[in-house]
Structure formats: C-alpha cells, structure tokens
Amino acid sequence: MKNSFVPEILDLLPDGVMVLDGEGRILYANEALSSILKVPLPRIIGARCYELLHRSKTRPPFCMHMRVNIEGHPCMDEFYEAHLGCWLWAYAAPVKDERGNLLGIFHIFRDVTAEKKHLLGNHLFVKIVETLPGFFYLSDHDYRILAANRRFKEWVGEEPIGKRCYEVIYKQKEPCSWCRQEEVFREGKTIQWEAVNPRDGRWYLAINSPFDSPTGERLKISLIFDIHERKLLEEKLRRLFEDNPAGLVVTDLEGRILMANRALKRLLRVSEEVDLRGQEVQQFYRDPRERENLLKALLEKGEISGYEVLLRDRSGGERTFLVSSRVFRQGPRLEIWSSLQDITPLKKMELALAESEARFRTLAENAPLAVILMDEEGRITYFNPAAEKIFGYQEKEVLGKDLHLTLAPPEYHEAYLRSFARVKKTGKSRLVGRPLEFKARRKDGSRFPVEVYFSIIQVGKKRFYLGIVQDISERKLLEEERVRLEKHRALELLAGGVAHDFNNLLTSLLGNLELLSRTVEDPRVLEVLSRCEKVAQRAKNLARDLLTFSRGDIPQPKEVIIKDFLKELVSFLVHGSSVRVHLEIPEGIPP
C-alpha cells in the first residue's frame, strides 16, 4: 500500500473497510470488517472478497468489483447476506495511479439491519393501518388526533389531524359523557363496546388500546369497525331463534342452559318470564340416564338427528320429543345446540294406528273372505289366509305384484288397468260400496266367479285400495239349481191348470157318454160308445196323474194288464190316422 493511506485512521472507523487488488484479493481490512464478517483478520488478508463475503467460489452477478472495473467510477448498493443474517450497505471506489491505471478497489461496508428493520416496521405499520377494513386514528390524552388512516378521513369527511376526536366523529364541542378514555390512559386497559352512531344510525364496534411511544408518552389507538350488517343479521338470527316453532336450546357439556327460546318454554310448560339460563337441563329428563346416552352418542358422532327422549314438563306431565343436536366450538368451550319437536300426539296416533292395524290383521287373518290390499300403483301389499286358499297363492308369491295382472284373466287386463288408471287420477270410483261380480283366475289358471266389495282408504297422503273377495262358485251352482226348480215349478203349475180343466171336460164327456149309451140299443153304436168311454177314462186317469204331478205328489203305482194296456195305448196313438198296426202279444204275460 502507498504511504498516503493511514491504516491507523481506518482502523478507528465503525464501518468495515477493505482494499482489494485487481484480482479481488484482500490487501487490507480493519477490525470493523472482521466483526461484520465474523472472521479473524489473519484469515481475511489474502483471501478473495466473494469467498468471505458471499461464501461463493465465484463472483456473484451483482459483484461491485466488476461494476467498478467496467464503469470506472464509484458505486453503492444494499444487499442481504443470509449466512451473516444482516443487511449490508456497500460502497466501492477505484484506486488508480497517476497515469489512471487501476491499482485496486476501496470498499466500505456498513451493517444497516437495524435501520432496515425500523424502516420495514414503519412501512409495515402504515400498510396494516391502511389495509384495515375499519377506521383507525391515534390520539393523545387531550383527545387530539395525531394520525389517521384514509378510511377514517373519508368517513368523517374532513382532515382530522390536529382536531379532537369528538369534534370530527360526533360534531360535538365537549367530550362524550360516556367516554372511557381514562381507563386506557391511567389503567392501561384495552376496552371495546358496540354503539349506534347518531350521525348515520349505524352500529359500530369501537376498540381503544394504549400505546406507549418511544418518548414515553402514552397515546390511545382507536379502531372503529362498521358492524351494522352484522347487527342486523344478529337481530334476524335472534328473531329466528325466538320465533321458531320448534323448541331451541343451547347448553354446555355439563347441561347448563345458555339459551332457550319461547317455544321451548311453552313445550315444557315454563312461564315466559322465567329465565332458564344457568339452570340444569337434567331437571326435565324423566330418567337422567337418557341425557347421558344422548350426550355419549352426540360426542361420538358430532351430531344426531331424530333422537327420541321422554321429558317431564313443569306441570309433571310426560311428553315425547324428537331431538336433533350438534356440537359447536365457541373458543375453548363446547356448546350443544338442540332443536326439540313434540311428537306426543304423533306417538299417540302411531299407537292408535298400531292398535287399529292389529285389529285389522286379527279380523282379516280370521275372515272367511279374501281380504286384499293394494297401494296407489295397484301392487298387492296384503293378502290374507282366505285369499291364499281361494286363489291358491302364498302371500309371499303375490306381494308387490300387480293385482289385476295376477288375479284376473288376460282378456280383462286392458279394461281393468284402464279403469284403475281413472280411479288413481280422480280418487273416486263408481264401484265403491257396490257388490260386483267378476271372473277371477287361480294360480293353476282355472277361472271362477267372484263377488268383490271395493273401498278406497286414505292414510295421510297415501291412498290404498281394499278389496274383499268372495268365491261364489257354489252360490252360482245353487242359483242355477234354483232356476231349474223354478222352471220345474212353473211347469207343474201349468200342468195342474191343464189337468184341472181337462178333467172337468172329461167328466162332462163321460157323463154324456153314459147318458147316450142308455138311449141307444144298436150294438155297433154301443161298442163305439164303450170304446169312447174307455178312452175318455184313460184320459181322465192321465189328467189325474198330471194333477198329482202339479201338486208335487208321487203318483201311486197300480197293477195293469200289460196286454190290454198296450192294445189301448197303441189304439189311442194311431186313432184318426191311416196307420195300421199289427200287434202280437205272447200269451201268458203276467199282469
């Protein structure tokens, strides 16, 4: 080094100093540089600067030595060295001889980490304040505003710096009567409250916190947030909670009531004036173990729905409730939000329905007639034992199947389905309450007549169709027999009338023949009259038999001489015709 440099003076400088040759080797370094690099001076002298400063084997792209060589004049820069954990300000200048030749580089380094942090802190503070979604201002003990963010200035509509807070916010000449500033300045408390600003009628959240400046003066940081929409939402939620028709309650895990709406009080017969907060919910359980079981299930799943519990109201009455609960975390505390629906009437209805169904099943299972129930789609939902016997199907074979397609002959399917579609659409049927006769089909395919009584049953919003079916095959046979007997009886009546009139005529004829035979002496005439009398007598006997038939009596048999009977019968049959009959009857035929 030249004598013009005074190492003793450079050693006294607080900044790190080093001198490099043209190759970047360190020719001189002071103690301050050794402290910055955290390397002893003997190890610094002779080393290349980038090896110690940047911990690199090669020059970095931003190397100031290279810039000075190229540009030929001094330069400055700031950079962060991670391995040193600090920000460095660097100055580099060329060292030249009298002829302008570069001899080396003069370097000065300064640790500016503290200044950087201070600048960064100020910048970050300003950035945070301006990014806040609310209003910010800083004030002294005399209410005077020292700083404010852009949002606050826009909100008050004027430049607030130097003015008092109550002047710019509330347009007042005196401090607010409810101001709690002393708690901040004297006690160092952070306080917050919610209030409506009379200027715009909106809700705001105000937070005041102490701030001790570097000078020791205590200032007040004020943050104001517009919470009007949140308050409106809170009011809506409060109304929703209070006016909900379902009983709503919020408890902690121990069962202490935190909130309860009016509906819950009504359900539990509690006066609306009574405040349930702080009371134990276990007092309403008929059996405290039910609450333990509910809590166990709730903690396992996080939420439960449709959990039935039996509670006792304040009047001592027991009611069944359907509970839906969910666990929420409020800070360090777990809360249970529950809704309760009184299903006591429903349970009574279910019990009555169960009893009614039991009675129906008892009657249907023992009924001698087929009882068949189908749903809105015509599918069989019930098939009693009598139906199994009549149709030959087991209940499990027909459940869920279309009734018409299963139990009716194929030629009737289209008509039945069309008729049932109308019933589904209108909910009415002209068949209701009227006995109707149809043809039905058994499992084996055989057909038989049935009489059906059809009804529509409405259960809630569901519709069912009930059919009571009777096999009338035997009745049909009896009816046919009755018709046959009625025809037979009509024939008897007819025969009786004819026999009676015929008998009267024959009686008159026989009387006249007898009188005529007394007045005639000619043997040939008497023979004719005798034959006529015999024929008339046979006709009278026939009329007597017809009369006996008409009365339903059985004619009494009598013995006749076959030879004479046949001769008379044949003579009677061919009388008046040109037919000649030769009748040969063997001798010795018994009567």
Automatic annotation (TrEMBL):
- Where is the PAC domain positioned along the sequence? 434-484
For this protein, the Enzyme Commission number is: 2.7.13.3
Q: Which residues form the PAS domain?
A: 2-54, 233-273, 356-427
The molecular function terms in GO held by this entry are: ATP binding; phosphorelay sensor kinase activity
Q: How would you classify this enzyme at the top EC level?
A: transferase
Entry keyword set = ATP-binding, Kinase, Nucleotide-binding, Phosphoprotein, Transferase, Two-component regulatory system
Q: Which domain of life is it from?
A: Bacteria
Query: Which Pfam family, giving just one, matches this sequence?
Result: PAS_4
Catalytic activity line of the entry: ATP + protein L-histidine = ADP + protein N-phospho-L-histidine
UniProt cross-references to InterPro entries, sorted A to Z: HisK_dim/P_dom (IPR003661), HisK_dim/P_sf (IPR036097), PAC (IPR001610), PAS (IPR000014), PAS-assoc_C (IPR000700), PAS-like_dom_sf (IPR035965), PAS_4 (IPR013656), PAS_fold (IPR013767)
GO biological process terms on file: regulation of DNA-templated transcription
User: Which protein are we looking at?
Assistant: histidine kinase
Originating organism: Thermosulfurimonas dismutans
